[in-house]
TrEMBL record:
Chain intervals for the UniProt region annotation (Disordered): 118-157
InterPro entries, per the entry: NAD(P)-bd_dom_sf
Protein name: Short chain dehydrogenase
Superkingdom to which the source organism belongs: Bacteria
Length: 157
């Protein structure tokens, strides 16, 4: 299975869970509000750490945004939960809008374009680790937030 299928499946599972939880909160008259932040591709270490047996290194589909932008959007959404969803980045807006208006057309477009980053990514080292062997230490013992980028230019909305 390609990484896009796994990623899309996980995103839809989270969306389904969020919508079900929202219904239960309304039913229970809990007074709690829940919102979802739809994110674009992010420059995180997930592509460096994920188990992969592909011949080339997996990379996110461009445009790629820095994770700090996602953190800002999530913080904003937490402070302003009056909306059901927030969409971060033009690529997210375009994808979600196209999926709602022309899902078949979007399927055919993604079938032609989504695998491209996998074909153009640099070859993965045969000696590269296939999993994270131990917790990754960074500043104060925290793991790195950013990945190696995988591209020459990173987007900023």
């Amino acid at each position: 299975m390609r990484s896009q299928a796994c990623s899309g499946g996980a995103k839809h599972a989270i969306q389904g869970f969020t919508e079900s939880l929202r219904c239960e909160l309304v039913h229970d008259r809990s007074g709690l509000e829940i919102t979802m932040v739809q994110l674009p591709a992010l420059n995180t270490p997930q592509f460096d750490w994920a188990l992969s047996r592909m011949r080339c290194k997996a990379t996110p589909v461009a445009p790629i945004y820095q994770p700090e932008l996602a953190a800002e959007a999530i913080t904003y959404a937490a402070d302003h939960p009056d909306r059901r969803e927030y969409w971060l980045g033009a690529s997210t807006v375009a994808t979600l809008t196209a999926n709602r208006l022309m899902p078949g057309l979007l399927d055919r477009y993604l079938a032609r374009t989504a695998p491209r980053p996998l074909r153009t990514a640099p070859a993965r080292s045969q000696s590269a680790a296939v999993a994270v062997p131990a917790p990754q230490g960074g500043q104060r013992g925290h793991a790195a937030v950013r990945g190696d980028g995988g591209v020459s230019a990173l987007a900023r909305p």
